[in-house]
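ugh ok fine here u go
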Amino acid sequence: MTAVVDRPTSPASGLVCRNCSATYPLGAQHACFECFGPLEIGYDADLLARVTRADIEAGPHSLWRYAGLLPVGHDAATRVDSGTGMTPLIRADRLADELGFTAPVWIKDDSANPTHSFKDRVVSVAITAARELGFTRIACASTGNLANSVAAHAARVGMPSIVFIPSDLEPAKIIQTAIYGGTVVGIEGSYDDVNRLCSELAETDEFENTGFVNVNVRPYYAEGSKTLGFEVAEQLGWRLPEQVVAPMASGSLLTKVHKAFKELTAAGLVPPSSWTVFGAQSAGCSPIATAFANGWDVVQPVKPTGIAKSLNIGNPADGPYALDVVRSTGGAMTSVTDDEIRAGISLLARTTGVFAETAGGVTVAVLKKLAASGQLDTSKETVVYNTGDGLKTIDAIEAGARPTAVIPPTLKGMRAAGLLTP
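structure:
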């Protein structure tokens, strides 16, 4: 399907190739016809500049308060809105103290979204775009969280859905996807195998009516991640943090937060300032961090392993762009082992009360590692993105999270276990 939608109230001006800068009308297209590079949404700077803080603050208590900065959803009746967004920005003083920070550390906790991950942001925007483009079914390739969100949002608006996942995903994520009643297809292979199949299906006649949120609708889908940048700026009183740390799977989230900061600055919604971007990966799947460490411009694909399955994209589409962002802002990226990930989950939980999934454990462990090495400045205000709920990946940490003691219901039992000590 190649329908083009006229959006007279949208600031989106067209699709722009990230490699050769070729432009195309707004439509269901994700690759450049000239160089096969990925497309993203281009905006009319004058229209973005018309958006005011007052306009945003008068909007709904969801990501759609930023509709004036997004490519779709300008008619409230077309929005797919499950209340996504405006998640807590938690000041993490105990975490900061433990890691030796003298400046504030904040946790942007997107586990508070309806399906408990940041993917609700991208799906809200993508399904809104898919409906405006005339698609009647929604689909995705997913490492888990996206499947949860697509199935839930489709159920909410009564669209049929079909999601494709690696068959060895965490059971909690499979259950959370299947419960919404859509079609769930387990693929015997990695996420990269799943994504390849979906790219092929999107070109077939049988799937002509289907919007694959991260294939043919991808330019719109990716814009949903910008709202994580918009919200942080608003929650900090309309200013930008000095440093951000984000997990990387495809690398898209990191690049879109950076894009959000640039657009806010250009629109005059925040004062001009500089910021530094840091990226986090699991050692079991670290193609972007490996390229950074080796000074490469090309990201070499890997076969994913390890417990951080939501980050297990071995051939990350946005990897080169994530490298560009981190290098251009003076940041860094690295990877952490499974044991470090578990320790990161525990560290965040016991210092902030936030229970993160394995991707959050990756991000906190990388924060700790970069702070200890001096690559991240502990004297600068830092925002850390937690993208999902720990209940989604409970199997990864259950062996180390057991009762302190099991005793009979007596004072003697308490004393024997040493639990009556002042």
